[in-house]
Every structure is written in C-alpha cells, then in structure tokens.
Amino acid sequence: MRLKHALIKSTLLFTVFLLLSCQEGKQNNAEVIAENVKKESQKEVSYSYTKLNGIGEEANLTRRDPSDVIMVNGQYYVWYTKTDKHFSGYNASIWYATSKDGVNWEEKGEAIPRGAAGSWDAYSVFTPNVLKSNNKFYLYYTGVKPTPGNAEGVFENNSVNDITAIGLMEADSPDGPFKRVSENPILETSTIKSDFDSYRIDDSCVLYREGKYWLYYKGRSANYGNSGPSHTKMGVAIANQPEGPYEKHTENPITNGGHEVMVWPHKEGVMTLLSSHGTEGRTLQYAKDGINFYVIGSFDNKYPKAPGYFRFDDFEGEKEEKENITWGISMFYGDRANNIWPYLMRYDIEIKDAE
C-alpha cells in the first residue's frame, strides 16, 4: 500500500524566456537558443511524494543525497549517504538498497566505506551516483579528509582549506564489491582561487553523449567559500572512458545557480533542474549541445530536493531516455526543531507541453 507523504500535486506553468545577454561565467549562443526555443515551449509540471518503507524516516539517522535509480534483473537499485552523526553528509559513508516496486525497499549494506587513514577520502564519502557502462557498474562519489591541521582529525567545514574531491569505484555487479579505480580522485578542485570550482566540487552525474562520458558536477569558488551554497554553479568534465581522465570544459561554469546536480538526456540535448540557489535558482534549463544552457521555465519551492531519477535503460545507445524523467528518489532535509532527521522519499513527476 502506497503511503502518501504530504501529497503535493502542483501544476506549474513554465514561462519561457530567452537569456540573450552575457551572464557572469556563462555566455549563451543566441542562434542556438532561437533555434531550439520553438521546440521547448511552455511546460506544465506536476509532482507528488510518497513515503518509502525501509529507507524512509528513522529516528537519529540520516539518509540523504540519493543517486539515480537503475534497474538490474528486475530490481531497482539506489545508493545514498548514510550517517548517525548529524544532519549533513560529512562524517558518513555510502549505502545502498533494492526494491521491486520503488516504494518498499530493503537496505542491503554499505557500498563504499570511508577511505583508509591518510587518504583523500578518509573522513567521509557521500553524494554517490551510478553509471552502468561496458558491463560494469561505476559509483562516482565525493570525499573529504580531515581538515589539515585539525588536532582532533575531523573535517571542520571551515570554508578555508577543507576542499572536496570526486572519486570513482567500479564493480561487475551492482551489489559489489566496489573497488577503487585509482587511489587518487578523478576530479579535483581548481588551483586557481578565482575559478568557480576552487573550493568545492561535488554531486557528480554522468551522461553518455556523442561517444564520450560527460561528468556534470557542482562547484564553488574559494572566493565565496564561507558564503554558502548561494554561489554554487554547475560545470562539466568530459572523458573518453568512464574512468577518465576527465577534462574540464573551457566554458565552465555552464550555469549560474543550482546546488544539486540533476541532468538528464532530453531530445537532442540535456535538461537540468536547478535547485533554489544562485541567480538561476529554481529554473528548468535546456542545452542542445549540453553546454549552453538557457532557462525555459521556473517553479516553486516544492520541487524534489537533492533528487536522483529513474533511468529505465542502460546509459548508452539508442534506448537511452530522450524525453522526460518520470520518477525518482529525493530527500527531506530534516527538521532540527522537532528532531526529525533527513530521510529519503519517492517523487513522481511529469513534464509536458502546456495545452
């Protein structure tokens, strides 16, 4: 029986408008926009939320930042951050669960533990995402080590010298065991302080496009480290193989907002739903080339938080999803005042042309 969690069904009318002027860190190609806006007209979006059994709300336990959902041998799989330490994903590890129906889940165990002492991800691993390619399963994730100089060996999140990095593990089965592709991260923060990703990189999501692997991620500059997520932007790095090496695109950053990366194939290009941070927060955007995103709509604050979406087929080939997402797993951020810790929930979403 499906238990609805604060059933929310809102139909939003997207107002299409063009961003033809240059914006900080991003330039849209006017001809590309003009050509494609006719195809991406006004949209209607409706969504609802459903409580999950097995990985839902639990006292004094955080589950958050779910991966995309995949199906293998008739079972859904999802990976996520789990900790009993606090609300955030720091000081956590990555766990996974399976389901037959997308509502009733069985937690299977830890998929990625913290790294060994002295490693770049020794303190915490979090925000996983999954890629199925070349008959292997790849888990991309974010890691941190204890803040340099901290006497207690903890991660301070001090917005000065506690940078993040993105790592990769692979396995022959979604149940693991997952092994490191490299002892080093596959993507690191920029060494140039003014760059958009010189302090934080996180939230990877990999798409297979044009024979290459496109790793979308969020970044934050060291210039704004202590200012929080409002300065988060999105970038992309591209590789010939899932393992890399990944080369950051010269046009990064490719959005001027959003805090959680959610991108999916749409028609010839890529769609993204940006969360409520930055100058482009709470917008739906599209890029035919996967780079030059432009706003095609906006929405209210009831959108899915930190969402991953169900990808109904492999990430390669003609069967890859080209239209719109339909459902996935998101999170509730928690309520400290009432001691409700972050937990996972299902969302169902429909994006369609307005009638």
**Tally of DSSP helical segments:** 1
- List low-pLDDT spans: 1-38, 317-321
Q: What is the terminal separation in angstroms? A: 33 Å
Measured as a percent range, the helix fraction is under 10%
CATH superfamily: Glycosyl hydrolase domain, family 43
Q: Give the biggest beta sheet.
A: 5 strands, antiparallel
Quaternary state of this entry equals single chain
CATH T-level topology: Tachylectin-2, Chain A
Q: What is the strand content?
A: 35-45%
The geometry reads as globular
Strand order in the largest sheet: 1-2-23-22-21
What's the SSE pattern? EHEEEEEEEEEEEEEEEEEEEEEE
Rg for CA atoms: 19 Å
Question: Secondary structure elements and their pairing?
Answer:
Layout: E1 12-13, H1 30-37, E2 43-51, E3 62-64, E4 70-72, E5 75-83, E6 93-99, E7 105-112, E8 124-133, E9 136-144, E10 165-171, E11 179-180, E12 187-188, E13 200-209, E14 212-220, E15 233-239, E16 247-248, E17 263-266, E18 269-274, E19 283-287, E20 294-298, E21 308-309, E22 327-332, E23 343-353
Antiparallel strand pairs: 1-2, 2-23, 3-5, 4-5, 5-6, 6-7, 8-9, 9-10, 10-11, 10-12, 13-14, 14-15, 15-16, 17-18, 18-19, 19-20, 21-22, 22-23
